[in-house]
Amino acid sequence: MSNLIKLNTNDSASIVENEWTIVKLPASQVEARKQAGKVVLFKLTGEKTVTDEQISGTVIPASGKIIVPLSVFIHRKAELQSRLSVKEVGVWIDTHEVLADLIENQADLNALPIIAVHVERFADGRIFSLGTLLRTRYGFENELRAIGDVLRDQLFFLKRSGFNSYVIRADRSAEEALASLNDFTISYQGAVDEALPAFARYNRAS
Q1: In degrees rounded to 5, what are phi and psi of residue 142?
Q2: What is the rounded CA–CA span in Å between residue 74 and residue 76?
Q3: Which of 80, 115, 125, 205 matches a 20 to 30 Å C-alpha distance to 98?
Q4: Which domains does the chain have, with CATH numbers?
Q5: Residues 55, 71 contacting (CB under 8 angstroms)
Q6: Could you read off the pLDDT of 56-90 as tens digits, one per residue?
Q7: pTM to 2 decimal places
Protein backbone atom coordinates (compact mmCIF):
# COMPACT_ATOMS: atom_id res chain seq x y z
CA MET A 1 0.00 0.00 0.00
CA SER A 2 1.16 3.54 -0.73
CA ASN A 3 2.76 5.56 2.06
CA LEU A 4 2.03 8.90 0.40
CA ILE A 5 -0.45 11.26 2.04
CA LYS A 6 -1.69 14.30 0.12
CA LEU A 7 -3.87 17.21 1.12
CA ASN A 8 -6.93 17.76 -1.05
CA THR A 9 -8.27 21.11 -2.21
CA ASN A 10 -10.91 21.08 0.54
CA ASP A 11 -8.15 20.68 3.18
CA SER A 12 -8.97 17.01 3.77
CA ALA A 13 -6.26 14.42 3.17
CA SER A 14 -6.03 10.95 1.67
CA ILE A 15 -3.55 8.20 0.87
CA VAL A 16 -2.74 8.16 -2.85
CA GLU A 17 -0.45 6.37 -5.25
CA ASN A 18 2.94 7.97 -5.80
CA GLU A 19 3.54 9.09 -9.40
CA TRP A 20 7.02 10.45 -8.71
CA THR A 21 10.30 8.52 -8.63
CA ILE A 22 12.98 9.75 -6.26
CA VAL A 23 16.38 9.79 -7.97
CA LYS A 24 19.21 9.22 -5.50
CA LEU A 25 22.90 9.95 -5.63
CA PRO A 26 25.21 6.93 -5.68
CA ALA A 27 27.06 6.23 -2.45
CA SER A 28 30.05 8.46 -1.79
CA GLN A 29 33.54 7.05 -1.52
CA VAL A 30 34.67 10.07 0.49
CA GLU A 31 35.89 9.04 3.93
CA ALA A 32 33.64 10.26 6.73
CA ARG A 33 35.23 12.31 9.52
CA LYS A 34 35.09 11.32 13.15
CA GLN A 35 33.88 13.45 16.02
CA ALA A 36 33.49 12.46 19.66
CA GLY A 37 34.03 8.84 18.74
CA LYS A 38 31.18 8.75 16.24
CA VAL A 39 31.41 8.63 12.48
CA VAL A 40 29.62 11.67 11.08
CA LEU A 41 29.37 13.56 7.84
CA PHE A 42 29.84 17.28 8.40
CA LYS A 43 27.06 19.18 6.69
CA LEU A 44 27.82 22.82 7.28
CA THR A 45 26.88 25.57 4.86
CA GLY A 46 29.71 26.05 2.39
CA GLU A 47 31.21 22.60 2.85
CA LYS A 48 30.92 20.36 -0.18
CA THR A 49 29.16 17.12 0.68
CA VAL A 50 28.43 15.80 -2.83
CA THR A 51 31.26 14.84 -5.16
CA ASP A 52 31.46 15.47 -8.90
CA GLU A 53 31.63 11.71 -9.36
CA GLN A 54 28.32 11.25 -7.56
CA ILE A 55 26.64 13.90 -9.68
CA SER A 56 27.89 12.50 -12.98
CA GLY A 57 27.21 8.92 -11.86
CA THR A 58 23.60 9.52 -10.86
CA VAL A 59 21.32 7.36 -13.00
CA ILE A 60 18.34 9.37 -14.27
CA PRO A 61 15.40 7.30 -15.61
CA ALA A 62 14.73 7.96 -19.28
CA SER A 63 10.99 8.47 -18.77
CA GLY A 64 8.41 9.16 -16.11
CA LYS A 65 8.10 11.82 -13.42
CA ILE A 66 11.30 12.22 -11.44
CA ILE A 67 12.50 14.18 -8.40
CA VAL A 68 16.26 14.75 -8.60
CA PRO A 69 18.73 15.91 -5.94
CA LEU A 70 19.48 19.64 -5.94
CA SER A 71 23.12 19.08 -6.92
CA VAL A 72 22.10 16.98 -9.94
CA PHE A 73 19.48 19.53 -10.97
CA ILE A 74 22.05 22.35 -10.88
CA HIS A 75 24.84 20.58 -12.75
CA ARG A 76 22.76 18.56 -15.23
CA LYS A 77 19.90 20.96 -15.85
CA ALA A 78 20.59 21.16 -19.58
CA GLU A 79 19.79 17.47 -20.11
CA LEU A 80 16.65 17.80 -17.98
CA GLN A 81 15.32 20.90 -19.73
CA SER A 82 12.95 19.19 -22.17
CA ARG A 83 11.34 17.20 -19.36
CA LEU A 84 11.23 20.24 -17.10
CA SER A 85 9.19 22.06 -19.72
CA VAL A 86 6.49 19.35 -19.57
CA LYS A 87 6.40 19.24 -15.76
CA GLU A 88 8.16 15.88 -15.39
CA VAL A 89 11.03 17.08 -13.20
CA GLY A 90 11.00 18.10 -9.56
CA VAL A 91 13.82 18.83 -7.11
CA TRP A 92 14.57 17.52 -3.65
CA ILE A 93 16.81 19.26 -1.16
CA ASP A 94 18.40 18.11 2.07
CA THR A 95 17.82 20.15 5.20
CA HIS A 96 21.48 21.21 5.35
CA GLU A 97 21.37 22.68 1.84
CA VAL A 98 20.63 26.36 1.29
CA LEU A 99 17.65 27.57 -0.71
CA ALA A 100 19.76 30.28 -2.33
CA ASP A 101 21.43 27.59 -4.47
CA LEU A 102 18.05 26.52 -5.81
CA ILE A 103 16.87 30.10 -6.39
CA GLU A 104 20.05 31.04 -8.25
CA ASN A 105 19.57 28.15 -10.67
CA GLN A 106 15.78 28.26 -10.99
CA ALA A 107 14.46 31.80 -10.72
CA ASP A 108 10.87 30.72 -11.40
CA LEU A 109 10.25 28.12 -8.72
CA ASN A 110 6.70 27.61 -9.93
CA ALA A 111 8.07 26.07 -13.12
CA LEU A 112 8.77 23.09 -10.84
CA PRO A 113 5.65 20.97 -10.28
CA ILE A 114 7.05 19.63 -7.02
CA ILE A 115 9.77 20.39 -4.48
CA ALA A 116 10.59 17.78 -1.85
CA VAL A 117 12.53 18.37 1.36
CA HIS A 118 14.44 15.38 2.68
CA VAL A 119 14.90 15.07 6.43
CA GLU A 120 17.44 12.52 7.60
CA ARG A 121 16.43 12.51 11.26
CA PHE A 122 13.02 12.98 12.81
CA ALA A 123 14.41 15.60 15.25
CA ASP A 124 15.77 17.89 12.51
CA GLY A 125 13.53 20.96 12.69
CA ARG A 126 15.06 22.70 9.67
CA ILE A 127 12.46 21.08 7.42
CA PHE A 128 9.82 23.36 8.95
CA SER A 129 11.88 26.49 8.26
CA LEU A 130 12.53 25.43 4.67
CA GLY A 131 8.85 24.81 4.03
CA THR A 132 7.89 28.18 5.49
CA LEU A 133 10.51 30.02 3.42
CA LEU A 134 9.47 28.31 0.20
CA ARG A 135 5.84 29.26 0.72
CA THR A 136 6.28 32.79 2.08
CA ARG A 137 9.54 34.41 0.99
CA TYR A 138 9.84 32.59 -2.36
CA GLY A 139 6.15 32.19 -3.23
CA PHE A 140 6.21 28.53 -4.19
CA GLU A 141 2.63 27.45 -4.98
CA ASN A 142 2.91 23.85 -6.20
CA GLU A 143 3.31 20.56 -4.38
CA LEU A 144 5.65 20.68 -1.39
CA ARG A 145 6.52 17.21 -0.16
CA ALA A 146 8.23 15.94 2.98
CA ILE A 147 10.37 12.83 2.49
CA GLY A 148 12.83 10.82 4.56
CA ASP A 149 12.35 10.20 8.29
CA VAL A 150 8.76 11.47 8.24
CA LEU A 151 6.61 10.23 11.13
CA ARG A 152 3.09 10.72 12.42
CA ASP A 153 3.93 13.35 15.05
CA GLN A 154 5.32 15.75 12.43
CA LEU A 155 2.43 15.89 10.00
CA PHE A 156 0.27 18.53 11.67
CA PHE A 157 3.26 20.87 11.98
CA LEU A 158 4.50 20.12 8.47
CA LYS A 159 1.07 21.12 7.21
CA ARG A 160 1.32 24.38 9.18
CA SER A 161 4.68 24.99 7.50
CA GLY A 162 3.21 24.72 4.01
CA PHE A 163 3.76 21.05 3.12
CA ASN A 164 0.85 19.44 1.32
CA SER A 165 2.17 15.92 0.77
CA TYR A 166 4.09 13.54 3.00
CA VAL A 167 5.81 10.22 2.35
CA ILE A 168 5.57 8.35 5.63
CA ARG A 169 8.62 6.27 6.58
CA ALA A 170 8.33 2.80 5.08
CA ASP A 171 8.12 0.96 8.41
CA ARG A 172 5.17 3.06 9.62
CA SER A 173 1.50 3.11 8.71
CA ALA A 174 0.23 5.91 6.51
CA GLU A 175 -3.31 5.17 7.70
CA GLU A 176 -2.34 5.86 11.31
CA ALA A 177 -0.39 8.97 10.30
CA LEU A 178 -3.36 10.33 8.36
CA ALA A 179 -5.32 10.87 11.56
CA SER A 180 -2.61 13.13 13.00
CA LEU A 181 -3.55 15.95 10.63
CA ASN A 182 -6.59 16.45 12.86
CA ASP A 183 -4.78 16.21 16.19
CA PHE A 184 -5.57 19.86 17.01
CA THR A 185 -8.65 21.89 16.13
CA ILE A 186 -7.22 25.34 16.90
CA SER A 187 -3.68 26.66 16.43
CA TYR A 188 -2.50 29.45 18.70
CA GLN A 189 0.32 30.74 16.51
CA GLY A 190 0.21 32.14 13.02
CA ALA A 191 1.85 30.04 10.31
CA VAL A 192 1.70 29.34 6.58
CA ASP A 193 -1.73 27.74 6.70
CA GLU A 194 -3.20 30.51 8.89
CA ALA A 195 -1.29 33.76 9.14
CA LEU A 196 -3.20 35.24 12.08
CA PRO A 197 -2.60 34.02 15.65
CA ALA A 198 -5.61 32.84 17.64
CA PHE A 199 -6.06 36.10 19.58
CA ALA A 200 -6.45 38.01 16.30
CA ARG A 201 -8.99 35.60 14.84
CA TYR A 202 -11.58 35.86 17.56
CA ASN A 203 -13.57 38.81 18.83
CA ARG A 204 -13.38 38.61 22.61
CA ALA A 205 -15.40 41.75 23.22
CA SER A 206 -18.29 41.20 25.60
Answers
A1: -95, -160
A2: 6
A3: 80
A4: 4-201 (3.20.20)
A5: yes
A6: 999 999 999 999 999 999 999 999 999 999 999 99
A7: 0.84
